[in-house]
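wait is this the right file?? whatever heres the structure
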């Protein structure tokens, strides 16, 4: 057996249906309605990751959220053991933030560094009353610790920021490279600046 196969365990993940969410009683762990849920497994076990949004205002045009939570649990003897949780809410800004939501097409639960454990990446953002993206957060969970990039979008240099947590450089290089590629993708696909000043 070569050493490469020892370290590269395939992480399986798939989206859960509304029926599966209900059968697993995942609504019991959430404070808000579940927007999306995925199951993933790695050498540590089988996990459920739920994305919840409070859906404060629902109209024909849009659903506006003032609070969001991502919750990762592992099934433990018929119950759930919470591994980690991410919570955020609208900030009081000018122009005013009107909604915050998960950008699930950019979220993942892959083994980014080849150690056999999933390294979830959670991406979400907020928009203003002018319908512009204001905040973008990219949170990587590595060994149950969170490593965040926090960006504020603005047309003017003085109000724009892009900051990595102080612990960012302790992440394995493969994870940092993946996130840097994700930032490039977000810039291109969401027409974002994602940089300081």
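ok assuming it is, sequence goes like this
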């Amino acid at each position: 057996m070569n050493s490469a196969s020892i370290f590269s365990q395939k992480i399986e993940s798939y989206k859960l249906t509304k029926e599966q969410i209900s059968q697993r009683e995942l609504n019991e762990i959430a404070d808000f309605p579940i927007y999306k849920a995925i199951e993933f497994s790695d050498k540590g076990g089988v996990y459920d990751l739920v994305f919840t949004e409070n859906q404060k205002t629902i109209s024909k045009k849009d659903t506006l959220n003032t609070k969001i939570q991502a919750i990762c649990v592992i099934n433990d003897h018929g119950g759930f053991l919470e591994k980690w949780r991410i919570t955020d809410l609208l900030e009081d800004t000018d122009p005013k933030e009107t909604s915050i939501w998960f950008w699930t097409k950019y979220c993942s639960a892959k083994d980014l560094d080849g150690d056999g454990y999933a390294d979830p990446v959670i991406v979400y953002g907020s928009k203003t009353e002018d319908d512009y993206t204001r905040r973008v957060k990219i949170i990587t969970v590595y060994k149950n610790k969170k490593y965040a990039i926090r960006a504020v979008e603005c047309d003017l240099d003085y109000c724009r920021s892009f900051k990595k947590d102080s612990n960012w450089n302790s992440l394995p290089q493969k994870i940092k490279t993946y996130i840097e590629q994700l930032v490039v993708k977000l810039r291109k696909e969401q027409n974002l600046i994602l940089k300081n000043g």
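The first helix runs from residue 3 to 7. so i think its the right one actually
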